[in-house]
Amino acid sequence: MTLGTLAACNANGGAAAANQPAAPGSKYIGLQTYTLGGELYNDTANVIKKLAEGGYTGFELAGYNPQARGFRSFGQDAATISAADFKKMCDDAGIKIISSHLTPNNLERGAKYDASTKDTILEYWKTVIEDHKTFGVEAIVQPSLPSISNKEDALNVCEVFNAVGELLGQNGIKFGYHNHSNEFNKVIPGGEAATPYYQRGFRRPGDDTPEPETIEKIFIENTDPSKVFFELDCYWTVMGQQDPLVWLKQYPNRIQYLHVKDFVVIGASGAMNWENIFTQHYANGNKYWFVEIEGTNSGHQVEYALESAKYLLGHDFV
Ligand code: MG
Questions:
Q1: SS3 readout for 218-236
Q2: Residues within 5 Å of ion ligand 1 by Cβ?
């Protein structure tokens, strides 16, 4: 990350003044449940209730396991929570399940997404549909980048994503893709490796190799808008030396969800200009976004999520 990127992200802003806090439940506040780590599975129903009391109204799930047909906690002997049981706990607490993160786990490690693996990938997605209908999700989002060395690889991924979007769409579920920082690596046609965002050089005069493009741009511009949307992880976008606002303005119809992620508690670092990001997201006609806090073994994840909700309830740009 450069100071320049953070400055761009912070243009016209900085820490916004807090307003009179809104009452919990009076406005949408979403949480990516990856945030909670193992704490979610320690008295799950009460953890969900506590989050609702703290202001959360929507979830994006992480960790659904199609082999277990539900959620397995991390311990070997831990019980599985079925999709129906988890949905009931959310309903009882007043939390709507909006989305779910999943990545196919039935490919060889490092296998590329292309015509030879497409059917295997689609087989995986078929196994998650029924339980996600039970959850009542609007969307399923893939959060992991397939192996990509060049522009052709990225275009092949787009074809597979279109097929996944078509399959899920036939079942009433939208398909999205979530970035980390590696999507801002650049590729060229026929290249042998993606150029990491932190190693970008200047193009020299007379350099006749094709202009490198970010993987994220190739994905957005080569997937079918009726089949694939994007969830922008604002923090990882900054870590990829990009300004989330630029992407939100450039692709207002394609980026439909956000990950609201800061260094730890949302708003505490002052480094992310949440006022500008939220304002643009809503101006683009979108309503959903999800708090995400990494560091899932801290032992304080529920506490950090509740602190983050306080910040979001206390700012009327949310
Ligand atoms: Mg994220």
A1: HHHHHCCCCCEEEEEEHHH
A2: 233, 259, 292
208 CA distance to ligand 1 centroid (A)? 36
Residue 168 Cα to ligand 1 midpoint, Å, equals 21
Q: Cα of 98 to ligand 1 centre, how many Å?
A: 15
| pLDDT at 5 > cutoff 60 | no
CA of 35 to the centre of ligand 1 (A): 9
How many helical (H) and strand (E) elements, i.e. helices and strands, does the chain have? 11, 13
Q: Is 68 exposed, middle or buried (0-12, 13-18, 19+ CB in 10 A)?
A: middle
The continuous run of DSSP H or E covering 272 comes out as none
Domains in the chain with CATH codes: 3-11+41-201+208-313 (3.20.20.150)
For the segment 71-118, what is each residue's pLDDT rounded down to a tens digit?
A: 976 555 567 899 999 999 999 999 999 999 999 999 999 899 999 999
Angle at the Cα of 152 from the Cα atoms of 151 and 155, rounded to 5 degrees: 90
Cα of 293 from ligand 1 centre, angstroms: 8
What tens digit of pLDDT does each residue of 169-205 get?
999 999 999 999 999 999 999 999 999 888 866 677 8
Q: What is the dihedral of CA 14, 15, 20, 23, to 10 degrees?
A: 100
Question: Within 10 Å of residue 48's Cβ, how many Cβ atoms?
Answer: 24
Give the span between the Cα atoms of 105 and 96, in whole angstroms: 26
Q: Give the distance (Å) from ligand 1 centre to CA of residue 182.
A: 13
